[in-house]
């Protein structure tokens, strides 16, 4: 992907996103919409995956038919909200290998600290798609990408539902080689680090917590 930021402005994505933003949308509906949007974002983010051909026989004749080339892609969820995006992508790409990155924010230093890291082997040979619905300050996303690079990943893309300009700028500075695909570039962060107009706390809304 040549663009650092791609906003998927497809009407279906935008319509579903409006439903997700609405504070009256309940958890089951929110989760369903997230799954549907994640598949539309996955369509965009995998657009340039490489193909090769394989000889097959249709009922009519033989042909060289296109199939994906290389190792299975790695889908990495940034816990916990990343799991909501991951589920839908896995339905679309069931053969994907799955990884998890868990980070929390140290209350004193305000820096992300790793508490869990498990990723597929041979990351260097795979397209790696890191998923987290909300790109807010970008600190945890950039730290997660640092960890993926340390583990060998060289071809990484980042999928989110909403991005704040602050998060995009942070990612561009830290990881200019990682294209971002999102459903919306929102206006700003508020003083508590929430995306505005946003949709609130994505994890709470998808898991029904407070
Ligand atoms: N994380 C969320 O869940 N929501 C925001 O608005 C920002 C970060």
UniProtKB/TrEMBL annotation:
Instruction: Please state the gene responsible for encoding this protein.
Output: upp
Family that this chain belongs to: Belongs to the UPRTase family.
Reaction(s) catalysed (UniProt annotation): UMP + diphosphate = 5-phospho-alpha-D-ribose 1-diphosphate + uracil
Q: Does the keyword Transmembrane apply?
A: no
Keywords of the record, alphabetical order, are: Allosteric enzyme, Glycosyltransferase, GTP-binding, Magnesium, Nucleotide-binding, Transferase
Q: Which GO terms describe its molecular function?
A: GTP binding; magnesium ion binding; uracil phosphoribosyltransferase activity
Which organism does this record belong to?
Answer: Thalassovita autumnalis
For activity, the cofactor(s) needed are: Mg(2+)
Provide the activity regulation entry from the record: Allosterically activated by GTP.
Residues crossing the lipid bilayer are none
Q: In which pathway does it act?
A: Pyrimidine metabolism; UMP biosynthesis via salvage pathway; UMP from uracil: step 1/1
Q: What PANTHER family is this protein classified in?
A: ADENINE PHOSPHORIBOSYLTRANSFERASE, URACIL PHOSPHORIBOSYLTRANSFERASE, CHLOROPLASTIC
Q: Name one GO cellular component term.
A: cytoplasm
Annotated protein name in UniProt: Uracil phosphoribosyltransferase
**InterPro entries this protein is in?**
PRTase-like, PRTase_dom, Upp_B, UPRT, UPRTase/APRTase
Residues that coordinate or bind 5-phospho-alpha-D-ribose 1-diphosphate: 80, 105, 132-140, 201
Function according to Swiss-Prot or TrEMBL: Catalyzes the conversion of uracil and 5-phospho-alpha-D-ribose 1-diphosphate (PRPP) to UMP and diphosphate.
Q: Which residues bind uracil?
A: 195, 200-202
Would you kindly state one Gene Ontology biological process term found in this protein's UniProt entry? UMP salvage
Q: Give EC number(s), comma-separated.
A: 2.4.2.9
The record's CDD domains line, in alphabetical order, gives: PRTases_typeI
Cofactor binding remark: Binds 1 Mg(2+) ion per subunit. The magnesium is bound as Mg-PRPP.
Q: Boundaries of each Phosphoribosyltransferase domain copy?
A: 7-209
């Amino acid at each position: 992907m040549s663009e650092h930021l791609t906003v998927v402005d497809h009407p279906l994505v935008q319509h579903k996103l409006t439903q997700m933003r609405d504070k009256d949308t309940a958890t089951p509906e929110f989760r369903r919409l997230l799954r549907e949007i994640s598949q539309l974002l996955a369509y965009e983010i995998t657009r340039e995956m490489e193909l090769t051909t394989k000889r097959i026989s249709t009922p009519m004749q033989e042909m060289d038919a296109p199939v994906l080339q290389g190792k299975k892609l790695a889908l990495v969820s940034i816990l916990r909200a990343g799991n909501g995006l991951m589920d839908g992508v896995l339905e679309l790409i069931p053969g994907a290998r799955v990884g998890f990155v868990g980070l929390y924010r140290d209350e004193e230093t305000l820096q992300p600290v790793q508490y869990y890291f498990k990723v597929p082997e041979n990351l260097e040979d795979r397209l790696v798609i890191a998923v987290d619905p909300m790109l807010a300050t970008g600190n945890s996303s950039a730290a997660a990408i640092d960890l993926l690079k340390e583990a060998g990943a060289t071809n990484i893309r980042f999928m989110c539902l909403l991005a704040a300009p602050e998060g995009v700028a942070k990612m561009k500075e830290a990881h200019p080689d990682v294209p971002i695909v999102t459903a919306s570039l929102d206006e700003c962060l508020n003083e508590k680090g929430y995306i505005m107009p946003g949709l609130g706390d994505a994890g709470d809304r998808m898991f029904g917590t407070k």
